[in-house]
Amino acid sequence: MKNNNMFSDKRAVAVFVLPAFVLFTLILLIPIIQMVYYSLCDYQSLKTPVFIGFDNFVKMFTQDEIMRTAFKNSIFFMLFSAITQQIAGLFLAVALTNIGKYKNFFKNVYYLPCVLSSAALALLWSFLFNQKIGLNVLLAKIGIEGPLWLMDTKGFIVLPMKVIGFVALWQYVGQTMMLYMAQISGISQTLYEAAFIDGASRKQCFWRITLPLLKPMVATTLSLNCIGSLKFFDLIYNMTQGGPGNRTQVLATTLYEQGFKYYHMGYASAIGLVLLMMCLLVTLIIKKCVVIEDYEM
Q1: CATH number of the domain where residue 139 is located
Q2: pTM, full prediction
Q3: Total tally of structural domains belonging to the chain
């Protein structure tokens, strides 16, 4: 009997796999290898890299105060974004799934910020939180003295970082909402009908049917939220440029400044490697913590 398996033709497989493998090697694998090597070097722009071992990492974890602030802010931003976007995204997805009229309108309203330019939105929100021309002017008219939204330096986590976290929630909650809505729409209605026949309430259906069947999407959205938050750059840099006094620096903004402002390519590569390892670690933790059961339907 003739074997019709498409994978039996090794030449055909090689022809289709080779372009993707070449692109993967040139665009991802080789730069990662170079980054690992440069992270172990004293590499100034336009100069020959000098191997110095783990000195960049020693400096990063024991001497660089800005990096300590960047680590703290990145972890805060990741946790804040993951928690708020999961809760708000799931709430909006469930609410919009259960309404009939104007459903598409509200979906577009909540998703629209995701497709807009982060740089433009950052400028828009910067004007809104400007103490001279923004929200504080409206508060002053009713006798309330507004805070320094983007300039306050008090507290373990400064107010500007919390403001940026709120803006990021507003911009990207639509993405989480759409992913949850897609998963909810794939749940068979017969499960809910059977539950209603057995006397279950809508609340019980949500906790016993919807949430368990959403676990695969919970793992996906958590991974996207956490990795995206760790790599977050454009909104923060355009709203505060890492200030005031480097109090809103995160790993991505510090990497950018070290590499493209001060031309410390070796140190920037070390930061990039740490950022890569953090993204991998977060992904593994989520995979271990979010247990996905197999349901027979």
Answers
A1: 1.10.3720.10
A2: 0.88
A3: 1
SS3 assignment, position 295: coil
In a domain, 215, yes or no: yes
Domain membership flag for residue 55: no
DSSP per position, 107-163: HHHHHHHHHS-HHHHHHHHHHHT-TTTSHHHHHHHTT-----TTT---SSS-HHHHH
3-state secondary structure of 263: coil
**Does residue 212 fall inside a structural domain?**
yes
Angle at CA of residue 250, ends 284 and 216, nearest 5°: 30
DSSP 204-256: HHIIIIIHHHTHHHHHHHHHHHHHHHHT--HHHHHHHTT-STTTT--HHHHHH
Give the tens place of pLDDT for each residue, 2-61.
555 656 677 888 888 888 889 888 888 899 999 999 999 999 877 889 999 999 999 999
Print the SS3 string covering 40-106.
Answer: CEECECCCCCEECCCHHHHHHHHCCHHHHHHHHHHHHHHHHHHHHHHHHHHHHHHHHHCCCCCHHHH
Range of the domain at 122: 67-289
Q: Is residue 13 part of a domain?
A: no
State pLDDT tens for residues 216-236: 899 999 999 999 999 999 899
CB atoms within 10 A of CB 180: 25
